[in-house]
Amino acid sequence: MVRVLSLAVLSLALLFTGCASKVDYGDAQARETVTTDFGSTDLQMIAAKMVDDMMVFPPIVEMTRDRRPVMFVDRVKNKTSEHIDTESITDTIQSKLINSGKFRFVDMSVVERVREQLEYQQDSGMVDQSTAAQMGRQIGAEFMLYGNLSSIVKRDNSTKDVYYKFTLKLLNIQSGIIEWSGEKEIRKTRKRSLFGL
Amino acid sequence: MKSVLAPLGALLLVVMLAACSNSNMARPGDNGEVELHTNNSLLGNRLSVERLREKTVGDLMYVQATLENGWKAELDFQYKIKWFDKDGFEVAPESQPWRQLVMAGRSQNNVQAVAPNPSAVRYEIWVRE
To answer: B104 CB near a chain A CB, below 8 Å?
Structure first.
């Protein structure tokens, strides 16, 4: 009877141990290869490549030598079959470009809120007019960043191969000329192991 | 049974040791030669920095490292370039990602990076598995 009871206690202990979960912090830049889906490592590699390429392109170097051109990010069209937050990629690229001290950005996603704030400062009677921001004084963007993210997926019984191509373009809004274009390719392959695990 | 378990145990040990490996670091020495610091003997023995080149583009440092895989098989690792200002502070440490690189056996690859901003005057190249 004692032996049965001991076994039951041991089994329960093993069961609870098996169900235990642990939360821990990890390196946000560690290689992420849980699946072949688009992941954080891909995002970081793409952003770094795009910014590096743009910064050393001779016409861009010349353009940013004595001034900080104003840009805005349009969007990166997701042409893959996955749900990918492409705004996250362009946010990272935008942050790197701003922090390089070479470019400035206008943010089209906050235009309405900026307008509300300007109207409040101008019309509410609450703000000292000597400190109020004036309407019609914003700086127009000179360049637009936009691009595509596409993928080709191939698979057979044991292998899945995913090829991503990210393309980013810098367009001069006034002339319509594409001043720079960069590409980053990523290939990820998943092979099923011998026992299908 | 014992004869089966022994090789499995050895294999597990090798896998565990590989999983615990650290980073290697390369940077130009005072005499311009490549200085290689190795914490990971496995990766360090197989990978070497053949050449480091640097120039200034506008006012940004631009570096190129020629890496050589001296091993006969493919090498899959990550590298990162850390940038430092004149006072030795790392510049934008969290914005510099580890970049993935797969090198064929007995091959050379050039890896390049641009400083995040003009304050960067020195760099180190780190690699890890």
So the answer is: no
What are the extents of the domains in chain B? 23-128
pLDDT, tens digit, 9 for 90 and up, residues A106-135: 999 999 999 999 999 999 999 999 999 999
On chain A, the residues whose CB falls within 8 A of the CB of B96 are 48
CATH, domain range B23-128: 2.60.40.3230
For position A120, which CATH number holds? Answer: 3.40.50
| Token representation of residue B23 | 């980073």
Whether B23 and chain A come into contact, CB under 8 Å, resolves to no
Q: Is the pLDDT of residue B10 over 50?
A: no
Q: How far apart are CA A195 and CA A21, in angstroms?
A: 26
**CA–CA distance, A179 with A188 (Å, rounded to integer):** 31
Domain-embedded: residue A130: no
Q: What is the pLDDT of residues B33-82, one digit of tens each?
A: 455 555 677 887 888 888 889 999 999 999 999 999 999 999 888 888 88
Alpha helices in chain A (DSSP H): 2-19, 40-56, 58-63, 86-99, 111-123
**Residue A172's domain spans which residues?**
36-125+139-190
Whether the CB of B93 is below 8 Å from some CB of chain A: the reply is: no
User: Does A172 fall in a domain?
Assistant: yes
